[in-house]
Amino acid sequence: MATLYELLKLLSKLLIIRKREKNLPVRKGKQQHNGIETMYPRERRNQSMSIVYKRIDFTQALAGLIRYAYSIGYDIIIDWVLRNATAQKEMYDKGLSKCDGYNIKSRHQNGLAADLYIIEDGKISNDEEKYNKLHEYWEAVGGAPMVIFNDGRKDMGHFEWTY
Ligand SMILES: [Zn+2]
Fold it and tell me: Is the CB of residue 159 less than 8 Å from the CB of residue 143?
């Protein structure tokens, strides 16, 4: 059982963290999105860089997206990130992806996409306006626009990197 003192200590620690977040020096190239500092990768590296560096940039941007989601009061969960060709083909066969995993590869197969869902009342939300807010942030930090399936359905929870 935590004492009142311990709780106060924890609370002040959290406040310090928040303060630090707000006072982070804005480095060159950093931007704000609705008052939240974005975590735009330090500099865009060239296209031929190895996949691991692309993944580092993607992961950094994703950390910013998650922090942004918390800041606007969303409860979120992460689902798929890295997926192999077999799993990709299964999704394609179910109409859940445009990529068959072999002829057309998904960014998930390189670990450059993440599925992130908003939870409301214990269930995955389909509130498009809410997802649009996340995608707005995502594009602001260099992510790709929302994927739309051929039949017009939107892959609202899918966030992929641009390079
Ligand atoms: Zn996805």
Answer: yes
pTM of the model: 0.73
**Contact at 8 Å (CB) between 116 and 134?**
yes
How high is the pLDDT of residue 27? 38
Cα 108 to middle of ligand 1, angstroms: 7
Domains and CATH numbers, the chain: 32-160 (3.30.1380.10)
CB 38 within 8 A of CB 140: yes
Q: Give the whole-angstrom CA distance, residue 145 versus residue 114.
A: 13
- Supply the pLDDT for residue 80: 95
pLDDT at 142: 87
Ranges under pLDDT 70 in the chain:
1, 12-48
Residue 159 Cα to ligand 1 midpoint, Å, equals 6
Task: Compute, in angstroms, the gap from residue 104 CA to the centroid of ligand 1.
Answer: 14
Helices marked H in 30-84 = 51-71
